[in-house]
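Record 1 of the preview.
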Amino acid sequence: MLVSIITPTFNSEIFINDTFESIKSQTYTNWEWIIVDDFSSDRTCEIVEGFMHLDNRIKLYRNNTNVGAAVSRNKAIEKANGKFIAFLDSDDLWCDTKLEIQISFMLENEISLSYSAYRIITESGIDCNKIIDPPNELDYLTLLKENQIGCLTAIYDQQILGKCYMPLIRKRQDYGLWLSVLKKVPVAYKAPGVLAVYRVRNDSVSSSKIDLLKFNYKLFREIEKLSMIKSVYYLTWNVYRKILKQ
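->
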């Protein structure tokens, strides 16, 4: 079963080789890697072209202007040929057995959307001794209270669901996609094991949590079409969950 790996890039020359190595090392080998570069000004595309000479499973597309991760991911999804759609950003990593374990889990249990636990490293690659371990099952209403699906861990079955795209918003677009899928199927399931590695960038650490909450509210109101009261209710849950984790 072919897996299409979706990766948007933007000025990713520092990290993209590590990401490539984690994909190349997969014990599950039936994959294609679709990269959409969002008008990088560094050597990202040159480096990716070098990968393409080494492996014909890699495809590169370039945006003519910087349009954001949602548009870039959606362009890659349009090009995807796989039964399964997987997501991996250009600074994150997968464990070697990630695809093998997760695809087997989905096929054996007839699952349309799955995710996994993942661990955290610093921008320079130092292990933070922290694992994000979401619940075994997530439904739409539970996910509204907090996005507990790490984008780098998510895989959906496009033969069952059709091609599902991200809403065209600058942030929280992955959250919007999971909510959209969970209106089609009742539950998403966690695959066994800690299967991915999320790199916390210095600029993401300094990102305003208030701004993220604003994007969550925008998602609830404009994309999910929730009432103002329900949007505030679920936003309050988001804040509460963040406080609990501090």
